[in-house]
Structure formats: C-alpha cells, structure tokens
Amino acid sequence: MLKYTIKRLLYSVLILFFVMFIIYVLMYNMPAGYIETKAMELANKQNSTRSFDEWLKFLNAQYGMDKGPFIGYFTWLGNVFRGNLGDSWKWTQPVTEVFKDAIWYSFALGLVSFIFEIIIAIPLGIKAAKNQYGVVDYSASAFAMICISMPTFFLATLLKYIFAVKLKWFDISGMQGKFYDQLSPFMQFLDVAKHFILPSVTLIIISIGGLMRYTRTNMLEVLNADYIRTARAKGVPEKKVISHHAFRNTLIPLITTLGGSLPGLFSGALITETLFAIRGIGFRSYESMVVGDIPFTMFYLAFISILTLLGNLIADLLYAAVDPRVRLS
Length: 329
Known about the structure:
Elements: H1 2-28, H2 33-43, H3 52-62, H4 69-81, H5 95-130, H6 135-149, H7 152-166, H8 185-195, H9 197-223, H10 226-233, H11 238-259, H12 262-267, H13 270-276, H14 281-290, H15 294-322, H16 324-328
Helix pairs in contact: 1-4, 1-15, 2-3, 5-6, 5-9, 6-9, 7-9, 7-13, 9-11, 11-15, 13-14
C-alpha cells in the first residue's frame, strides 16, 4: 500500500508540474493591456517613485513575462517555492492574504452542501434502485432530472424571489444583516449562517441530481449481479444484502464522483457566490479575472489544479482501501 501511495504521489507531482506550465503559458499570452493598465495605475499614484516604463519593466520581470514562456515559467516557479506569490492587483494586498480572507467562507458553503448532497442523494439513489420502475423510482428520477436541468442562476433567482422578496425570510444577498454590528458574537454567527442558507440550498439542489442518478445506475448493476442472487438464494436478509454486499461494490464508482468533489469544497462556487454576494474565493477569483489580476489568477488556477490532483489521489487510495484487487495490481 505504501509503494502504491508513493507511486501515485510522484505521478501527481509530475502532472502538477506540466499543469502549472500550461497555466503560466495561458497567463503569458494574455493581452498585454492588463499589465500596461496596472503599470499606468501604479505610475499615477502620488507617492510613486517610478515612471510608467519602469513599472512596466518591473511587473514583467516579476513574473518572468520578459524572458519567454520557458525561462519565465521557471522564474515564476522559483518565486513560488520561495513563498513569493506576489500582490493582487485588484485587492492591493498579497494574494495569500486575499486567499485566507475568502477561503473559509467558500469552505463552509461547500462543506455544508457536500454533506447534505451525500445524505440526500445516495440514500435516494439506493431507494430508487431497490424499487426499480416503481413510484419511488419514477419520482426520484423525475426530481433528479429537474435538478440536473435547472441552471444555477435560474434556481438562485427563483429562491430569492420566493423566500426573500415574497416571504421576506431572508435578505436578497450579502453576508450580514443591517444590525450585524449591534449583535453579540453568537448572534453574529447566526446572522451570517442565515445568509448562507439560500446559497447552500442552491448548491444542494443543483448537485444531488447527478449523484442520485449515478448511485441508482451503479446500484442497479450490482443488484443484478450473480453473487447478489446467490446471497438472496441462501436466505441472507435483504437489508444485509443491500448494506453489506451491494453497497460496498457500489462505493467504487461513487468514490470517483466524491473524490472529484474535493476542489468544490475549497475552490468556491463562482456563480452562486456572485449571485448571493458571498465574499468567497469563487467571487474573488471572478472579480480578479474580470480586471486581469494576473498574480491572483495564477495563484487561484494553480490552487485548483493542486486540489484536483489531490482529489484524484484520495480517490485512488480509497479504491485500494475498498477493493483489495487494486492493491494487488
């Protein structure tokens, strides 16, 4: 198992090296106007000691944009290893500070959505598979297709119209109420949590459809296997057939889906955060990309790449834990 883990880890590092190179090449080929605009902004500040040309040269040199994509990439990579990730042009502070300020909002939103997605979608998929072509199956499948087909912006707007405009249970957007500063620390926490309800519901509804259908499909395949029929013929209780024999084998394809969900816990839900004005990492990245904030965009894309590879690595390790055949191979 240790050898398998080290092998997968080395593969991940190699892939990350090339992925980060692609990210750098994309940034390198962005329109030069973004860098020129930032250089002009810095040169026009009252306390600026450099001219426009000097700022332009400095910004290009800082990220290796003046050395070609290959040498520039290793220059940028060297700065990353030294912990020098640069300052965000949009937020005028180190990109790590912007990241730390925003990541926990996105993590809280993603974690709540992820937990409820699993709690709702997987049992519903198993229930639908057990009652194939029954009322539960048709109802669950119809609900799943509605969730899959519904655009995020439409669902978010619909929820805001019903619960914020008509019922006035929640604010339309934002993370704090009008009297937030007058509340106790505990009530401030509840106030923020209340503002996260509609964004969380949006993400949950959008996510559960696909996972439910995936669970149902794999559960049906397992339930029709010969060893399941053998277990039933031996008189094994149906509850044990489902929980012990069938569900364990259904876990293998589900791990792929759940492992791929890891980036979503930290990367932020860009559309949802923007619609509800949640100051998470998704919203910050959108704002940064719009204005051509190259330092933060490079950091954010590299961060997402690491999370994606980490999710795949965790999925591979869970394969080996669930299926002994993976360890033997």
